[in-house]
Amino acid sequence: MSGPSSPSSTGHWDSTTTKPPQFAPRSHNDVYPFILPKRFRGALKDKVTIITGSAGTIGQALAECFAVAGAKLVLTYNNTPPPTTLKERCVNLGASDVSFVKCNVAELKGCEDLVKQVLQTQGKVDILINNAGANSLGLFDTQPPEAFIHELAVNLHGPYYLMRLLLPHFKSQHSGCVLNIASRAGTVAIPYSTGYCASKAALINLTACVQKELDVDKLNDVHLYSLHPGGIKSVMTLTSQILPLLNLHPPPSTHSAFTQAFDTLYDDSPYLNGMTCVALATGLAKHVLRGKYVDVGQDLEDILAQAEAIKSDENLYALHTSFLGGLENGGTGAGEKPGDGLKKSAEAEGGKEGFEFPGF
């Protein structure tokens, strides 16, 4: 890709600028050439891959995509088993093995039993995909606390449990990949979806924090990612059906905005997320995107072409906060060092440095 704002053919930029140039990656709502299944056929041969929430639209697509890559699939479900045809489809696509395990990821005991069973039967785990999710929707002040807590348990506690249980294994084998299916809801505020937004935001930051610890230990072959899987139509996103069932009656303008955002804009293929996850699991982007939050709608090839731009800006593909006046997240203003304001105040008053009750 070329253009006035694209990186040069050498991958360098003008040294007089403070940051490398950027260009907008191409956007997709379906599988595109860089992540075509045929490019990754057998790329994850015999890699033991746990996929939670495998019964849903996103989970089944993940299973099929990793099957093409030759993975050994451990597909978990809680209340609803995956369709009986899923195993046959995955085997026909190239999966080394397919097994189904009932597991409630919201409970630590269930996660412990799952990890123990997989390690005993398969001898290892190579890839963990935390895909199970819950979104009960509802007004914050009337939603039953049990529903809010359940969303946190499934969306955050489950991934935490499984990551916590498997990280020692990944460290001992010096390899492993975690793909946490988050959501754009983790980076924006959406009414009637408080528990979902809060838990997905926490999941994004959990991923980044754990990767930082792994990087300190120079375990570069243990790589984690959080992802927005795209706008995929599912029971969770068809608000035109859900809002009335939940007895939610927002103002007409709000209802209209929700209907358009969820029912019209949700037109992405679940295989876009599936093949992006396969590509990331192979490690082709770990030097740039490990620990990062990735929107699968952006062209991965275009993202990787801007590795230096991403490495030079910690806010890219990460949660961050912006303040007026350039205030940094550490609490100091642009160009100031911690304590500068205190020192100036103390010097002006002719007193010693320190905080004193200001009086009234």
TrEMBL record:
Keywords: NADP, Oxidoreductase. CDD domains: SDR_c (cd05233). It holds the Pfam family adh_short. One of its GO terms (cellular component) is membrane. Residues 1-20 have a biased composition (Polar residues). The keyword NADP applies. Residues 1-26, 328-360 are annotated as: Disordered. Residues 337-360 have a biased composition (Basic and acidic residues). One of its GO terms (molecular function) is oxidoreductase activity. InterPro entries: NAD(P)-bd_dom_sf, Sc_DH/Rdtase_CS, SDR_fam. Belongs to the short-chain dehydrogenases/reductases (SDR) family. Putative oxidoreductase. This is NAD(P)-binding protein. It comes from Sordaria brevicollis.
